[in-house]
Amino acid sequence: GKGIAVFTSGGDSQGMNAAVRACVRMGIYLGCKVYFIREGYQGMVDGGDNIVEANWASVSSIIHRGGTVIGSARCTDFRQREGRLKAAQNLIKKGITNLVIIGGDGSLTGANLFRQEWSSLLDELLSTSRITADEKKKNGVLHIVGMVGSIDNDFCGTDMTIGTDSALHRIIEAIDAIVSTAYSHQRTFIMEVMGRHCGYLAIVAALASEADYIFIPEDPVEVNWPDALCDKLQQERNAGQRLNIIIVAEGAIDREGKPITAEDVKKVVVDKLQQDTRITVLGHVQRGGNPSAFDRVLGCRMGAEATLALMEATETSVPCVVSLDGNQAVRVPLMECVEKTKAVAQAMADKNWELAVKLRGRS
Ligand code: ADP
Question: Are 59 and 121 in contact (CB under 8 A)?
Answer without folding.
Answer: no
